[in-house]
Amino acid sequence: MFLDIIFLIAGLVLILAGANYMTDGSVALAKRFGMSDFLIGLTIVAMMTSAPELVVSVTSALNASSEMAIGNIVGSNIFNILVIIGITALIRPIAVTRGVLINEIPLVILSSVALLVMGCAPYLDGGPMVLTRVDGIILLLFFIVFMRHTFASAKSAPANDPVASSASGFKPTPLWKAILITLGGLAGLVLGGQWFVEGASGLARAIGWSEGLIGLTILAAGTSLPELATSIVSATKGFSGIALGNVIGSNIFNIFFVLGCTATVTPLSFGGIGIPDLSVLLLASILFWVFGWFYRCRTITRPEGAILVILYIAYMTYLYLNLPA
């Protein structure tokens, strides 16, 4: 068990370091092409900070731990909305434009609905909950549509949009350096992901938790740390566009791309990840959209941020109270 904890911690350190370097390198590349803060957050930063989820989920699936792979994604997406948006709003209320509420956040809800429907379809027919290869391909098609929609919307975004504002006075990083930083981060992610999954699997067996529960809690929180750190730093520096886009993009990327790729490689059994967990994800996504529309002028306020964090604590309490004896 001690060795499992060492692997878990060492893997997490490598994942976080790798994600940090990949984010720095990819943002530097994106800035060279004049991308806006929100677009960078929605695409580049979201993908790079979701790289731990991609590595951990694919590695878990290839190691015959599909329950852990799905638990990691479901738990990460719940963590992203309830904890990251919650804490970010507590630090600085998050302004949300009408365009984001109409175009992007509904895609977060759609991704949650798609996962719930795909998981429930075989279950309602009396079979186990599973994501098939066909489901994986459908999710990847959704991702392609999302990317086309995102870049099409970015071309028509107004220049004075507070969420899609471009950074001025940016000093470009040399191209060779940006590429080197990105590749170095990728290497750390791959190695760290392998160690992290090995440690988590061993720890689950040692303490008697299911792999799904480990994925929903320890793996989810661990692999979401890049998103949390990126969003908090962005909020404290006043770049709410990056913080907001990061969470929206990460949640869409996690389901449409990460689960899409993983399920295409090998079908994924939900195992202990049930309808209650998928329902919590869907409700969190809807609440994210509702908070953006109401109370004050399209702003997620500090009280709303506190509500989100409290809901996450309540969900963790529910999981703890329902641990197998």
From TrEMBL:
It is a multi-pass membrane protein. GO terms for cellular component: plasma membrane. The keyword Transmembrane applies. It is found in: Membrane. The keyword Nuclease does not apply. GO terms for biological process: intracellular calcium ion homeostasis. Residues 5-148, 178-320 form the Sodium/calcium exchanger membrane region domain. Its main location: membrane. One of its GO terms (molecular function) is calcium channel activity. Keywords: Membrane, Transmembrane, Transmembrane helix. InterPro entries: K/Na/Ca-exchanger, NaCa_Exmemb, NCX_ion-bd_dom_sf. The chain crosses the membrane at residues 6-23, 35-58, 78-95, 107-124, 136-154, 175-197, 243-265, 271-294, 306-323. It comes from the Bacteria. PANTHER family: INNER MEMBRANE PROTEIN YRBG (PTHR10846:SF8), SODIUM/POTASSIUM/CALCIUM EXCHANGER (PTHR10846). This is Calcium/sodium antiporter.
